[in-house]
Amino acid sequence: MKEISSCVMNTIHNHYNSSFMWTARNEIEEKWSYKRAYDIGWLNLTAVDEAPILDYIRKEEEYNKSQEKEESVEKSEEFLQ
């Protein structure tokens, strides 16, 4: 991901007189999240400490999984009624 983003940004910078727009969130795959790539330091010039960001991402993913499980249980209970 880091290598791809670097190549894209360098190509655009060196060969085009334009801008490149990358969606902030991509619904296809999480690995294409601009916000995460920026926060981890892949796109910005001032990299930040990864530990708090990765911890936040882990907690966010755990929360999303728990929400999905709750929704699944609720749907199952509705179906059984």
Short description:
The protein has 81 residues and is mainly alpha-helical. The protein has helices spanning 2-15, 34-40, 50-80. It has two domains: 1-45, no CATH class; 49-81.
Structure overview:
The protein is mostly helical. It has 2 domains: 1-45, no CATH class; 49-81. Helix content is 64%, strand content 0%. It is elongated. The termini are far apart.
Which structural class should the secondary elements be placed in?
A: mainly alpha
Tally of discrete structural domains: 2
Question: What is the first-to-last residue Cα distance?
Answer: 46 Å
- Percent helix, as a range, is 55-70%
> Could you state the oligomeric state of the chains shown?
single chain
Based on CA atoms alone, the radius of gyration comes out at 18 Å
Shape: elongated
Report the biggest beta sheet as strand number plus sense, adding barrel if it closes: none
Following the backbone from N to C, one meets helices and strands in this order, namely HHH
Give a count of the beta strands, DSSP E runs of length 2 or more.
Answer: 0
Average pLDDT works out at 76
Given the structure, what is the number of helices?
3
As a percent range, the share of strand residues is under 5%
Low-confidence stretches: none
